[in-house]
Amino acid sequence: MNSIDLEFILVLLILISLILILINKKNIGRNSNFFCWVVLQAKSFFPILIIVLFLRSFVAEPFRIPSGSMLPTLLVGDYILVNKYKYGIRLPIIKSKIIEISEPERGDVVVFRYPGNEKINFIKRVIGVPGDQIKYEDKILYINNIAYEKNKKLEHKYLDVFTRPELEMYSESIDSNSYNILNDNMSPANDAFFNVPEGKYFVMGDNRDHSSDSRYWGFVPSENLVGKAFLIWMSFDSDKFSLKYKRIGSSIK
């Protein structure tokens, strides 16, 4: 998910508005009708910009799903909301955590800045937390030598979106968290073993055989976390140029 640095733009606009308001108080440029109009706009938009920055930085941020790496949980064209305070309050732009709240748990769907290029946001599911031993063998996950429970499923509201003979859908669960995943019978298992370091997380896409994740590029540092995805607020089918009304308002599990 490519991201425009809207936080930086908002902060810049707030600073420009504040400077214009202060200049106006010093009686500079008041003879110019254009300057007076600009100051009026700055005064009007200043509180709105503050509110938008606060909500986006500390409450919730919207993202669009551009790929199928999280099928069947998230579809291409889903628009989601991400809880920005779940994993701690961070300052805008510099991203420094100022208030600790909680840490990601296994099963959480998280948005994070991709370690290989922090200008890009990724969304994946947390599989391993710091200290965990992860084993992926024959497409079965083991956490600290305990296997994730995995059961084949035949039903899904949007099965027609991703159905192919080689794809199979399963429910996967551990620690009371349950969600759906896809396996591609035509793809190799790519068995591997990982030890999750302190301060980092092991993540995977629910579309297990078609996801660029921790198996290939490593762990997600805690400081790269953006927040927890919790709601689909809109879903758009670009092929049919229509809304997927039934997905609007769905919680993300």
Give structural notes.
By secondary structure, the chain is of the alpha+beta class. The protein folds into 2 domains: 6-58, no CATH class; 61-251, Umud Fragment, subunit A, CATH 2.10.109. It has helices at 6-25, 33-58, 159-162, 214-217; strands at 60-64, 78-83, 89-90, 97-99, 109-113, 121-128, 133-137, 140-143, 146-147, 149-153, 167-174, 177-184, 192-195, 200-204, 220-221, 225-237, 242-243, 250-251. It starts with 5 loop residues before the first helix and ends with a strand. 24% of the residues are buried. The mean pLDDT is 91.
Proper CATH architecture of the largest domain: Ribbon
Number of domains: 2
How many helical stretches? 4
Q: CATH fold name of the largest domain, please?
A: Umud Fragment, subunit A
According to DSSP, the number of beta strands is 18
Compute the CA-based radius of gyration.
22 Å
Q: Indicate the CATH class of the largest domain.
A: Mainly Beta
Keywords:
four-stranded antiparallel β-sheet; 21% helix; 253 residues; alpha+beta; nine-stranded antiparallel β-sheet; Umud Fragment, subunit A; 35% strand; 18 strands
In short:
Helices cover 21% and strands 35% of the residues. The protein has four helices and 18 strands.
